[in-house]
Write a structure and sequence with these properties.
Largest sheet: none
Helix content: over 70%
Radius of gyration: 20 Å
Order of helices and strands: HHHHHHHHHHHHHH
């Protein structure tokens, strides 16, 4: 559903009073502390129970014991969760600002569908079976769909409505292709069923190394777009009067969202609702200023992702519940609540 704020409800991004800025800065520090605590919990708590002594040995001594191996695996998983969570949160915030749709998420422009279609193609037709192999297919698919959405949306003449409609249409077509391939090829179905729900279980140092440059570039670009996106939130005419380059801002926003969401999807699979929920919740206490929304989203999104991952390890012991399933279960009721809010949606 496309929701665009009417002119009288558009964001007011005038500078906040000094007291409010201090409160927001303090809140950012509190959020960072919570993120560190959740990251430590992700290392210490899991489907395999470890004592605090084993966790300590694994972190600082690494003597090669069973506990040390488990801690090493959880370390990679936690780092990937921090990176992917921040990427999904930033891309969601950017897309919500770009489309002027508070219910937008990284899947709105077809990026998740592009990555998924590319992976199933690599598995089925090119015989790629390793994560290090199909991660590049996933990223290429996300980037290709992002470029196609930008082109179909009108490129330099793109508008939020055109971009959203183009992304929705391409997503539907690609998901139809994905389902058709998996139905006809049982081997592809078996290989894809874990990847498509979204998971951090395949995290390795190699995976992190491959996607880290994309996370860094996309994050820096998204943060740099805060001011021009703030101007665009007040309407195209006002943004032009303030000197904002609308076409360049939209193009760079598309690029940032594609790089961030593409890298996260390539490494973890399509994880839903993180990019929708966190920026929306953050906006409720920071206001519409993206100079605050983006940093808060980059910190609190990993809290949600890692928290869901830890919960999935605990509730299904000794097995694990994939993080994509947990976020979907948690996100469904939240999404319904957000849709039904009168200030969010016009029904």
């Amino acid at each position: 559903m496309l929701v665009e704020s009417p002119p009288e409800q558009r964001a007011d991004v005038t500078p906040a009073p000094p007291t409010r800025r201090v409160i927001r800065a303090f809140g950012l520090l509190v959020a960072a502390t919570i993120m560190v605590l959740v990251a430590l919990a992700s290392i210490a708590v899991g489907a395999k129970e470890l004592s605090l002594e084993q966790v300590w040995h694994g972190l600082f001594e690494n003597s090669g014991t069973y506990g040390d191996v488990v801690v090493d695996e959880r370390m990679s998983r936690t780092v990937l969760g921090l990176l992917a969570g921040a990427a999904l949160g930033l891309s969601g915030a950017v897309l919500q600002a770009l489309t002027r749709n508070p219910l937008a998420d990284p899947g709105l422009l077809g990026i998740n569908a592009g990555a998924s279609a590319a992976v199933v193609t690599a598995l089925t037709y090119f015989g790629v079976t390793s994560l290090s192999g199909y991660v590049w297919f996933a990223f290429f698919g996300a980037a290709a769909v992002g470029a196609l959405v930008w082109f179909l949306g009108g490129s330099r003449g793109a508008t939020p409505v055109r971009l959203a409609l183009a992304g929705t249409a391409i997503s539907a077509a690609l998901y139809g292709y994905l389902q058709a391939v998996m139905i006809m090829d049982e081997a592809a179905l078996g290989k894809m069923r874990f990847w498509t729900v979204g998971s951090l279980t395949s995290a390795t140092d190699e995976t992190i190394t491959q996607v880290l440059p994309f996370f860094l570039v996309g994050s820096l670009l998204a943060l740099a777009l805060a001011r021009p996106l703030n101007a665009m939130a007040m309407g195209d005419d006002t943004a032009k009067a303030l000197g904002a380059n609308l076409n360049r801002t939209r193009a760079l926003s598309m690029l940032a969202a594609t790089v961030l969401c593409g890298a996260a999807t390539a490494a973890c699979g399509p994880i839903v609702f993180v990019g929708l929920m966190v920026p929306h919740v953050v906006r409720s206490f920071t206001g519409p200023d993206l100079r605050w929304i983006l940093p808060y989203a980059a910190i609190l999104s990993p809290v949600l992702l890692l928290g869901a991952d830890v919960l999935g390890r605990i509730v299904a012991r000794p097995a694990e519940l994939q993080v994509g399933i947990v976020t979907a279960i948690l996100g469904g009721p939240v999404f319904i609540f957000l849709v039904r809010r009168r200030r969010t949606a016009q029904l």
